[in-house]
Fold:
Amino acid sequence: MNVYDRWILPRLTDLAMRNKEATRYRSQLVPKASGTVLEIGAGSGLNLPFYGTAVDRLYALDPSEELLQMARKKAGAARFPVEFLMHTGEELPLDGRCLDMVVTTWTLCTIPDPAKALKEMRRVLKPGGTLLFAEHGLAPDASVRVWQDRLNPFWRKVTGGCNLNRKMDQLIQDSGFTIVQLDKAYAKGLRPMSFIYSGCAQPNISGS
Ligand SMILES: C[S@@+](CC[C@H](N)C(=O)[O-])C[C@H]1O[C@@H](n2cnc3c(N)ncnc32)[C@H](O)[C@@H]1O
Structure:
């Protein structure tokens, strides 16, 4: 791993993800989590202060050692046990059907194989469990999409693999979830980076 990815990128990620709009989405989404919860791509732990008392246990998973170190510092204030898992979302180190909820914020854009990760999320969720998500992705306007496609190769390089042009609702549905609630809107900021899909989904009963 080069110096940029190891030392600079984690700090830039933490700084960038502290923005006001992301915080607004976190404050609306994360308090809905309850029971035994897994957060995929927990990063520097910016969602931690928003989990409420309905959470019994949180697994915070991320492949970045540096980001998890930052997250560990925030876990002391949590009112429930937090277990950190240094792992990728594509292969979850958890038994099947053991979780009530999975949370993902600004992470499906970065996971190299998001369909595989969503399949894993489905595996570990109990029947009737919930996926809570807030993700940026493909915009509805052709003029914005052009820029998302143009910028994507450069953007991926400087952000550690983040993609601007994934159609998040379709990705979630195609991976065996039914979307129960969905809000799609531009957040404040540069349009190619700020079209947000937020809501919740449940694993299909048939598993397909
Ligand atoms: C833009 S950051 C978002 C961090 C955090 N979710 C937040 O809302 O602040 C993207 C995160 O995805 C994580 N990530 C990258 N590849 C991943 C993978 N294969 N599985 C799970 N997480 C991954 C990164 O380490 C990083 O923490």
